[in-house]
UniProtKB/TrEMBL annotation, chain A:
The branched-chain alpha-keto dehydrogenase complex catalyzes the overall conversion of alpha-keto acids to acyl-CoA and CO(2). It contains multiple copies of three enzymatic components: branched-chain alpha-keto acid decarboxylase (E1), lipoamide acyltransferase (E2) and lipoamide dehydrogenase (E3). Within this complex, the catalytic function of this enzyme is to accept, and to transfer to coenzyme A, acyl groups that are generated by the branched-chain alpha-keto acid decarboxylase component. It comes from Pygocentrus nattereri (Red-bellied piranha). SUPFAM superfamilies: CoA-dependent acyltransferases, Peripheral subunit-binding domain of 2-oxo acid dehydrogenase complex, Single hybrid motif. It catalyses: N(6)-[(R)-dihydrolipoyl]-L-lysyl-[protein] + 2-methylpropanoyl-CoA = N(6)-[(R)-S(8)-2-methylpropanoyldihydrolipoyl]-L-lysyl-[protein] + CoA. Residues 218-262 are annotated as: Disordered. GO terms for molecular function: acetyltransferase activity; dihydrolipoamide branched chain acyltransferase activity; lipoic acid binding. This is Dihydrolipoamide acetyltransferase component of pyruvate dehydrogenase complex. The lineage of its organism: Eukaryota, Metazoa, Chordata, Craniata, Vertebrata. It comes from the Eukaryota. Pfam families: 2-oxoacid_dh, Biotin_lipoyl, E3_binding. Residues 172-209 form the Peripheral subunit-binding (PSBD) domain. PROSITE patterns: BIOTINYL_LIPOYL (PS50968), LIPOYL (PS00189), PSBD (PS51826).
TrEMBL record, chain B:
Pfam families: LplA-B_cat. The lineage of its organism: Eukaryota, Metazoa, Chordata, Craniata, Vertebrata. One of its GO terms (biological process) is protein lipoylation. Residues 47-233 form the BPL/LPL catalytic domain. It catalyses: (R)-lipoyl-5'-AMP + L-lysyl-[lipoyl-carrier protein] = N(6)-[(R)-lipoyl]-L-lysyl-[lipoyl-carrier protein] + AMP + 2 H(+); N(6)-[(R)-lipoyl]-L-lysyl-[glycine-cleavage complex H protein] + L-lysyl-[lipoyl-carrier protein] = L-lysyl-[glycine-cleavage complex H protein] + N(6)-[(R)-lipoyl]-L-lysyl-[lipoyl-carrier protein]. NCBIfam families: lipoyltrans. This is Lipoyl amidotransferase LIPT1, mitochondrial. Keywords: Acyltransferase, Mitochondrion, Transferase, Transit peptide. Pathway: Protein modification; protein lipoylation via exogenous pathway; protein N(6)-(lipoyl)lysine from lipoate: step 2/2. PANTHER family: LIPOATE-PROTEIN LIGASE (PTHR12561), LIPOYLTRANSFERASE 1, MITOCHONDRIAL (PTHR12561:SF3). It is found in: Mitochondrion. It comes from the Eukaryota. GO terms for molecular function: lipoyltransferase activity.
Length: 492, 359
């Protein structure tokens, strides 16, 4: 039993070693294009020794049987192999899918006839396979005879395990299931089959074992990370019943962590962001933070929300923040500028294309609303809705994502109060908005009142922007939001 | 509407009732839900002793076959702008355009009783029941042609271990101009071994005879099916969104909509194309496997743009999905650190936008 347990545990090793061997074979034969995952070549001698030990103990390796492509029907003689679901070295059970073939507009899933390990694939993808010729070679587990039509008659008459007590009636189970029962000393007749016609499936054996030992077996021997067997309650109880007097608390068994680190190269958007952020942090940033009292804005928005919805638009606070920023930029155009790489020339951008950091399936993207200086708050809300829908469905285009001149990041919608945002090139300023909190504040009459407070954190390029400019811009932006009526005076 | 035992699933209903045959009609016009319904019936209903017919229609959608290449088969840009979804079915065959003027019929049988010609005789028979002098016939490629020329139906099939299904379309009153514009690729230079579609001239049945509308045809199909297979079944309407009736169907519908299935299942292909950008002819060469860019090379005139720009773009595209929004996100990030000298910036932007347009 112990030997077989080791066998199970080292099957992933065998699989890799086997595929390594086969890779050597195939490099010379050039039969297959072989899109296999190449096994790493560096294996220590201990593993090879284990392999040798494995070979001698795994005496039950059965014959390698060719699995022929059976008749598809309609007199079809040849098919095109379209997709392989297995590769050499994979273990398959009876009825597992092996490949997908296509003939004359019909797509056929070919399932395995045997349990075993795939030893050879006879066809490449897109090659023609003939009915009646071998499709794959399967190294079966000992005792499986090549049956003609196993798919149609699940009850196999071959039986090599003589010490199964089958009381008079035939229990239906595949050879793999029978072997599993035998290894665990289970009588098939005692197991209730949940398959068709009372057939015993692998799950039934596993459930039977679980009930007996109270343990949950690992689902498959081929996973890299073995889930630690949870300390069975039955085992823990005896410990608790008689606590040793010197030790105050029972010691729980330490789970063994067999997880592995995973390294992968950075690609696509992540890779591009590395470059963007590296360049951005070369800019000397300074930060400026402040608190904004949005009590009046909250009231205004709740009044206007209904009107917007009647026009089919969801109104959040962002359109107000964006419009107020644009009004501020009219007075401080340096914040809507851009410098060249050598920092020799500054370009004052005419359009206010205000970007909004958005969390999408692709990552944190910053689409921008174009020409905010020409848009009303409602029009900004419409555009934001469009960008949000596109962002959520992964359909933002280059036009939406490029050309921004100033950015606002509403990180507060997820959480946080103060932030230290990084300027997004080629812009020179950015603002991060914290979450809207309800806090007590003193009003003009020295009374404590409920106020809706939001914190804003600005960052700017200190090479061309000074603290005073940022401060005045922030104060102006803040005054528009704290007293929304004043926005009406300056609206363009 | 048949009475269903409370809390029973569709499978239980049919097996309890020991019906020899069922005629079903889907209440949904969502292509993914209907494809999921087909999958669900194929996997769960025992067809060894019985058979089933499912009739369904979808609102505008393009459906490609299991092993096809969507970039090669349809105009993805046009579809995106019109909001027409793309679905990949599990059966083989070619690309079709579905809308409410097209009826889909799926014949479920055991693998032993799989017989496409017999099913198509039901279809032509039903049409002739409605209009006896209608010239419709099935070809040996399993198409149905009207007046010997116009294709009104295409076929595809899926065979599993013990069960099979054969489905076909039927053009009643489809939008033919939309059909032809959507089923034309906008991508040049694709080299692939994916199953190609065979285009044919098409015609709507309703153009031939205005009385042949979808509901009349579906009624005739149901009667003819029952007559051919020898049982009597009412047409039962099934709503694929009811999870309780068909446990697991919502997950099937979600799997059918996943990018990995719709685009990622495309057989390996390469694109070798060129485009004009700001007066220069740019060559683009990409290999795509499982929908992911495996190889990317660009031929950019050296005097037009510094070679590092092209190399950086290719490097950034490696390993990402061949998808316009993913590429747009990448190029937008690259734009931020691109040269800001006006002419170089313009060229870089044009290059990036054209690359996105290729997807």
């Amino acid at each position: 039993m112990a030997a077989l347990t080791t066998v199970r545990g080292s099957l992933p090793v065998l699989r890799r070693l086997v595929s390594m061997q086969c890779l050597h074979k195939f490099c010379s034969s050039k039969v297959l294009k072989a899109p296999f995952v190449c096994a790493p070549y560096s294996y220590s001698t201990t593993l090879l020794q284990q392999h040798r030990f494995f070979r001698t103990s795994y005496a039950a390796a059965g014959p390698i049987l060719p699995f022929k492509l059976s008749d598809i029907g309609e007199g079809i003689m040849e098919v095109t192999v379209k997709e392989w679901y297995v590769k050499v070295g994979d273990r398959v059970s009876q009825f597992d899918s092996i490949c997908e073939v296509q003939s004359d507009k019909a797509s056929v899933t070919i399932t395995s006839r045997y349990d075993g390990v795939i030893r050879k694939l006879y066809y490449d993808v897109d090659s023609i396979a003939f009915v009646g010729t071998p499709l794959v070679d399967i190294e079966t587990d000992g005792g499986q005879a090549p049956e003609e039509d196993v798919m149609e008659t699940p009850a196999l008459s071959q039986e090599e395990h003589t010490h199964q007590h089958i009381r008079g009636h035939k229990t239906q189970a595949t050879p793999a299931v029978r072997r599993l029962a035998m290894e665990n000393n289970i009588k098939l007749s005692e197991v209730v089959g949940s398959g068709k016609d009372g057939r015993i499936l692998k799950e039934d054996i596993l459930n039977f074992i679980a009930k007996q030992t109270g343990a949950i077996l690992p689902p498959s021997p081929f996973q890299e990370i073995q889930p630690p067997p949870p300390a069975p309650a039955a085992a823990a109880k005896p410990q608790e019943k008689k606590p040793p007097p010197s030790i105050p608390t029972p010691i729980a068994p330490r789970p063994v962590f067999t997880g592995k680190d995973r390294t992968e190269p950075l690609k696509g958007f992540q890779k591009a962001m590395v470059k963007t952020m590296t360049a951005a942090l070369k800019i000397p940033h300074f930060g400026y933070k402040d608190e904004v009292d949005l009590t009046q804005l909250v009231r205004l928005r709740s009044e206007l929300k209904g009107v917007a919805e009647s026009r089919g638009v969801r109104l959040s606070y962002m359109p107000f923040f964006i419009k107020a920023a644009s009004l501020g930029l009219l007075h401080f155009p340096v914040l809507n500028a851009s410098v060249d790489e050598a920092c020799q020339n500054i370009t004052y951008k005419a359009a206010h294309n205000i970007g909004l950091a958005m969390d999408t399936p692709q990552g944190l993207l910053v689409p921008n609303v174009k020409n905010v200086q020409m848009l009303s708050v409602f029009e900004i809300a419409v555009e934001l809705n469009r960008l949000q829908t596109s962002g959520a469905s992964g359909q933002l285009g280059t036009a939406d994502l490029t050309g921004g001149t100033f950015t606002l990041s509403n990180i507060g919608s997820i959480g946080g109060t103060y932030a230290k945002p990084v300027v997004l090139l080629p812009e020179v300023a950015i603002g991060a908005l914290g979450k809207l909190q309800v806090l007590p504040r003193f009003n003009a009459k020295d009374e404590v009142v409920k106020a809706h407070i939001m914190n804003v954190s600005w960052s700017a390029d200190h090479r061309i922007i000074d603290g005073a400019t940022m401060c005045r811009f922030s104060n102006l932006w803040k005054s528009y939001l704290e007293n929304p009526a004043s926005m009406v005076l300056d609206l363009k | 509407m048949a009475l269903v035992k409370k809390n029973s699933t569709l499978k239980e209903y049919f097996e309890d009732a020991w019906k020899a045959g069922i005629v079903l009609k889907s209440a949904s016009t969502d292509v993914f839900q209907n494809l999921a319904l087909e999958d669900w019936i194929h996997e769960h209903i025992d067809v060894q002793q019985r058979s089933a017919l499912l009739m369904w229609r979808n609102s505008s959608a393009v459906v490609i076959g299991r092993h096809q290449n969507p970039w090669q088969e349809c105009n993805l840009n046009l579809m995106r702008s019109m909001g027409i979804p793309l679905a990949r079915r599990r059966s083989g065959g070619g690309t079709v355009f579905h809308d409410l003027g097209n009826i889909n019929l799926t014949f479920f049988t055991s693998k032993k009783k799989y017989d496409r010609h017999r099913n198509l005789r039901v279809v032509t028979g039903a049409l002739k029941d409605l209009r006896p002098d209608l010239d419709v016939s099935a070809t040996d490629r399993f198409d149905i042609v009207l007046n010997g020329v116009y294709k009104i139906s295409g076929t595809a099939a899926k065979l599993g271990r013990t069960a099979a299904y054969h489905h076909c379309t039927l053009l009643c009153s489809s939008d033919r101009s939309l059909l032809s514009s959507v089923l034309q690729t906008n991508c040049k230079g694709i080299k692939s071994n994916a199953t190609p579609s065979v285009p044919s001239p098409v015609k709507n049945l309703q153009d031939e005879d205005p009385s042949l509308d979808p509901s009349a045809i579906m009624g005739a199909m149901a009667s003819r099916y029952c007559a051919e297979f020898g049982f009597d079944s009412p047409v039962i309407t099934v709503d694929p969104s009811v999870e309780q009736l068909m446990p697991g169907i919502q997950k099937m519908a979600a799997d059918l909509q996943a990018w990995e299935w719709v685009y990622g299942r495309t057989p390996k292909f390469s694109i070798c194309t060129s485009f004009m950008a700001e007066g220069a002819n740019i060559g683009l060469d990409m290999d795509i496997k499982n929908g992911i860019v495996e190889k990317c090379a660009m031929d950019i005139p050296h005097h037009w743009l510094p070679p590092e720009v092209g190399k950086e773009l290719c490097s950034a595209l490696m390993g990402i999905r061949f998808c316009p929004s993913e590429v747009a996100a990448v190029v937008a990030a690259l734009m931020r650190t691109a040269s800001r000298a006006p002419d170089l910036a313009k060229k870089t932007q044009s290059l990036y936008e054209n690359v996105v347009a290729v997807m």
